[in-house]
Amino acid sequence: MENFFLTRLTRRAFMEKTAKACMKTGLSLFFLKGSFAMASEADEIPASGSNEKKFSVAEPGYLRLHRSGELSERAAALESLMKECRLCPRQCGADRIGGGKGFCQAPGMLPVIASASPHFGEERPLVGRGGSGTIFFSHCNLRCVFCQNWEISHAGRGRGQSYENLADRMLAMQRAGCHNINLVTPTHYSAAILRALDLAAEKGLRLPLVYNTSGWERMEVLSLLDGAVDIYLPDFKFKDSSVSSEYAAGAGSYGEITASAILEMHRQVGTALPESDGIMKKGLMIRHLVMPGHTKDSVKIIEWIARNLPENTYVNIMAQYNPAYRAFDHPEIARRISTEEYRDVVRAAEKAGLVNLDVRGSWWLR
Q1: Strand order, beta sheet including 181-184
Q2: Helix, strand, coil % (nearest 5) of the chain?
Q3: What is the Cα–Cα distance from 139 to 102, expressed in whole angstroms?
Q4: pLDDT tens digits for 182-206?
Q5: I want to staple 122 with a disulfide (CB 3.0 to 4.6 A). Which of 104, 132, 165, 167 is the partner?
Q6: Which residues form the Radical SAM core domain (predicted)?
Q7: What's the half-sphere exposure (Cβ side, CA atoms, 13 Å) at 182?
Q8: Phi, psi torsion values for 139, nearest 5 degrees
Q9: Residues contacting residue 172 through CB under 8 Å, at least 6 positions apart
Q10: Are the CB atoms for 314 and 272 separated by under 8 Å?
Q11: How far apart, in whole angstroms, are the C-alpha atoms of residue 235 and residue 262?
């Protein structure tokens, strides 16, 4: 096991490494119980027998679909879209059921997973004290040139998993005290996710489901996720079609499709408001990454949100852009953003009347 006690770590990095180590050794509850990394008693896993714990909030929506058998039917409907793949707006037509690779490079039907562990780097209402149970899926349909996770999204680093293994990973993170199951880049594996979710629900999964997506989603797919997803966490990366075409492999439709998708997500789950403990259980949370030289496009996105969604919509304005992967092939984005660029976007959001902004300090930007 990695001896991380001999390495200088931030508090967040220490908690992530500790949680991973505990999960590997099966000591998660023993090690974390009573610590600041453990979920509250109300969030503990209901155990079989007389010592059952009850959750303090309404149960996740997917449990109703599981009990009625509809969750399995939804999975089958998503699988039917994979014969000539139409899971994402590219609609590349690959025979995923027959083992073919789509534009996203996902091979066949079974999910490929890069990692699954408690994660402490997500939004605070998702992380809480126990972390967000984050599953990073390999491959991606958007394929941005500046992707910071390109080893996973472009190169496909990860291992294929059965539905049973994916379900077991969800349950392991529940036992570790995570507040939710956070599915990162899930679109091209949405059928497999519902299959695994059905199995996990049967075995006692009770955590909210977070759909952590690029935002570029088809309405047909979103309709099949209605009631299964508790928290939608979409990016809204680009508004201008020329920008998305340049940086996202010709995805000129990104802005228009993502705007429609976000409206549908809001219709399904509503505005995200934290519970009394500060943890988010349901709703829409939007991310926007400010990019160098493109604050005008950022302002368009902010103004669209203000016009079309409630003023208390959760919007995370992110400052952590870092030129990665093939960003240096595009000189205009081959740098960090400046303090002024970030502040301009924040000011635009405040001027537009948005009141639930997740804004980070920009003192470290140049």
Answers
A1: 159-160, 112-119, 132-137, 181-184, 209-213, 231-234, 283-289, 314-318, 357-359
A2: 40, 15, 45
A3: 10
A4: 999 999 999 999 999 999 999 999 9
A5: 132
A6: 135-227
A7: 28
A8: 75, 165
A9: 23, 28, 116
A10: yes
A11: 9
Percent of the chain residues topping a pLDDT of 70: 83
DSSP run (H or E) holding 136: strand 132-137
- Output the DSSP codes for 78-117: HHHTTTTT-SSTT-----TTTT-B-TT--BSSS-EEEEEE
Tokens read off for 84: 């000539």
Averaged pLDDT of the chain: 88
Q: How many CA atoms lie within 13 A of 38 on its CB side?
A: 16
**Which residues, other chains included, contact 225 with Cβ-Cβ below 8 Å and sequence gap of 6+?**
74, 190, 211, 268
Report yes or no: 14 and 6 within 8 Å, Cβ to Cβ: no
Helices 190-202/70-80 angle, 10° precision: 160
pLDDT digits (tens, 9 = 90+) for 288-341: 999 999 999 999 999 999 999 999 999 999 999 999 999 999 999 999 999 999
Distance from C-alpha of 278 to C-alpha of 156, rounded to nearest angstrom:
35
Q: Which residue has the higher pLDDT, 366 or 191?
A: 191
Query: Among 56, 152, 44, which Cα is nearest to 106's?
Result: 152
Please give the structure tokens belonging to residue 145. 């040139």
How many CB atoms are closer than 10 A to CB 254? 26
**Structure tokens that stand for 93 in this block:** 């037509």
Contact 144, 322 (CB under 8 A): no
- Please name the residues in contact with 41: beta carbons below 8 A apart, sequence gap of 6 or more: 53
Identity of residue 334: A
What are the structural domains, with CATH classification, of the chain?
Answer: 19-43+56-359 (3.20.20.70)
Q: With bands split at pLDDT 50, 70 and 90, how would you rate the model's confidence at 264?
A: very high
Closest CA to 352 of 323, 313, 321, 319: 313
